[in-house]
Amino acid sequence: MGKRGQIAIYVIIAVIIVVGFLVFLFMRERFVPVPSVEVDLKSGIEKCVRDSVNEATDIMLPQGGFIEPKNYKLFNKTKITYLCENAGNYKPCINQHPMLINEINNEILIYAEPKIENCINNLIFALKRKNYEIKSEKTNISISMTKGKIIVDVEKKIIASKGETKISFDKFLIEITNPAYDLINVAIEIVNNEAKYCSFEYTGYMMMYPEIDIRLYVTSDSVKLYSLKDISSGKKMNFAVRGCVIPVGF
User: Fold this and answer.
1) CB-based contacts of 128, cutoff 8 Å, min separation 6
2) What is the pLDDT at residue 118?
């Protein structure tokens, strides 16, 4: 009787273990895919947005803030945009881009938007290959810059469903650490001083704001090339200025 009792206990324990293992597998199969899909979609879109925006600024800032500069000084194979220019002599330069922040903001959007859209489509396609049924609406993207960062708001309704699993997204808000706004504001201050005083005291400015390194190079044809560098990130912005030029021989 004692041996039979021990065997019965072992059988009960074995049944409990098997049942517990089956319950674990059932719960895992039922709940793990939901957060996995959510994380994959969010992280995928966030990575694509960051890469696209940073790529845009890396192209634009060394060229004065534009993907394809139209009025520029070619220097070391780089098209450096004139932010302030006067084609004549003696007179101060004229600000060529008084709405520079808005212009650059729009340039980033034009460059990044199709890349982000394509990335989202690829992520949706990957979910469909995993047998998810996807319903999505039009993508609306807006970009704004502030101190130390670029904020991207992606409005995109996506509904992913598979069996009893259903996940819905409405928007994705991504903040990207990027010094573009800070560099642009320094460039605007330099341009305002050049347009008013024909110069900018950049050594004194750097003593007050050591986070930005400013370099000035004057070409043989009296064009001033400013190079601004964000110390923490190493990112640079270049731009050209021509004004108050004294002709050769005077």
Assistant:
1) 134
2) 94
